[in-house]
Write a structure and sequence with these properties.
It is a multi-pass membrane protein. It is found in: Membrane. The two termini are 30 Å apart. Among the domains are: 151 residues, no CATH class; 81 residues, Regulator of K+ conductance, C-terminal domain (Alpha-Beta Plaits, 2-Layer Sandwich); 60 residues, Alpha-Beta Plaits (2-Layer Sandwich), CATH 3.30.70.1450; 63 residues, no CATH class. The protein has 28 helices and ten strands. The relative contact order is 0.14. The strands form two sheets. A five-stranded antiparallel β-sheet has the order 3-2-4-1-5, with helices on one face. Strand 2 and strand 3 form a beta hairpin. By secondary structure, the protein is α+β, with helices and mostly antiparallel strands. Helix 5 packs antiparallel against helix 22, helix 7 runs antiparallel to helix 8 and helix 17 packs antiparallel against helix 20.
Length: 627
Amino acid sequence: MTTDALVVFGIVVLTLVLFVTERVPIDVTAIFIMVLLMLLGSDGVVNLTHISTAEGISGFSNPATITVLAMLILSSGISRTGVVQILGRKMAAFAGEDRDRQLLATIGVAGPVSGFINNTPVVAILVPVITDLAHAGKTSPSKLLLPLSYASMFGGMLTLIGTSTNILASDVSARLLGHPFSMFEFTSLGVIVLVAGSLYLMTIGQRLLPERVPVKDDYVQEYAIEEYLTEVIVEPDSPLVGTTVETAIDTVEFDADILQVVRDGEEFIEPLGHMMIREGDVLRLRADRETLQELVERDTLTLTGHPPQTGAELEPETEEAQTLVEVVIPRGSYLAGKSLASSTFRQRYDANVLAFRSRGETVRDHMDRRRIRVGDTLLVQAAPDSIDRLADNEDFIVAHEPDEPHYRTEKIPHAIAIMLGVVGFAAVPWAPLGGALASVTGVAAFEALAALSLPILVTALAGVVAMVVAGVMEPTELYDAVEWDVIFLLAGVIPLGMALEQTGGADLLGALVAATGLYLPAIGVLWVFYIATGLITGVISNNASVVLMLPVAVEAATRIGADPFSFVLAVTFAASTAFLTPVGYQTNLFVYGPGGYKFSDYVRVGAPLQLFLSVVTVAGIVALWGL
């Protein structure tokens, strides 16, 4: 092993460790790796990675990166029209209280739609729709939300644009083999995976899915925070009299929040910050027993003996809109990586956090100092207008549809026409079409059509312009629509894949894997790559696993005399369908909290599915493309 390859392997290991531990956000990790590659590259301190400065930053101008950026904007434009939500509600009406029909509706919407809209925003859009569907249909959301995530992954493999992983894999395939993916390159296999995966979810998977969240929509009981809720009366000689709600309790000293004020039989909720406390006020608090005892002794408060026990008691009787909602933290949220104390969440939204779920753990006390991570789900109490502001902000996914959603439904025809144009113009075989028309009509102009090539990059960017011109999106909304962490992640890991190729690291790993060909047939080696990619994707980003595994897969295929493109497809499908862990794919994180899942739930439901689809996918590749 050369020194250069050894250094790159060390950087790969460092990357994996940082991705798994999440000591810093993954996009920051990617940029750090990019800088490290350049420092150790041909223009840096010592040439060990063979990466020049131009190659180091090439990820930002890479066609895959720009295409993903454009597709994120287009997906956002579609979501702003409300077409996906409307479709979801129509399917909910069809489902009713029949669990099988509810599951079929969930898969039937998420799967096909994810083939044409990036599957990550599809799940973000449908989480509140499916949650409401479950509660209305007297079904635990846990029975539907994980299938929602999995179905979106199935659908993402229907077309090139279904997921950012496909776009990135197409670019790597073009660089390694000169064979980028066409729009419907693997649609036939994608349909097989969608059907097979759906059958699994409708049968075996349905029986393996737990009922973590109660059918009844009561968050106080679901999060088991009854013992943290209490009522106290402010005595005449209490030092709290004359203070504002915002300053009454020192949150640095006491882990407590004032949730409501009841005065003369009238209930007040947020915004409470500037409300003056009077004697006789009943304060509804969130506090543990030890903190409550200290507050009672110090501030001359009296327990009422009637603490709220349900979510309904924390909602004002005069308001029909619910004031308790779950809020999921997606990637790119300003709250990710921060604590409630260090952020301005409470002040910005006049909201209280009663508890939150983080990686399967429910946190009910000392929340202010806990770092919020991507996928965490906050149980938030806020006034209806604050909830609407949360729902309108792409920093959050509110797991409850607003009563009066603000969608641009009049722009639905424009948005659909633009997406059809983006897909259609990229999918049209211009060369054969132009040649045929020229030969039939004799019109020379059609020869120019035969030379025309419209890659998805061009049509997607044209679609972005069309979205703005047609009024589907405002110009200022373009920047908010981009998941910049994904863009920086792509820009950072692309040079790592190049370094793996240029230093011979991919050749070495490929040779090691190819050695299994002494004991396994080519189809066995192909299956090994599928399984290995799925396992790696379970702990790191799916985009990173594609960049790392594709060069190795191509080299291994070449050494055993197999078709490298078949191996490229196996790696791409495995990376885009990661079922084993909640951190392997962002859609899994989106449903982690609202579904009340534990880490083991993903293994129990996802492991048989991953194994089943490994056989289906590998067999499909061999049947359709050969070895």
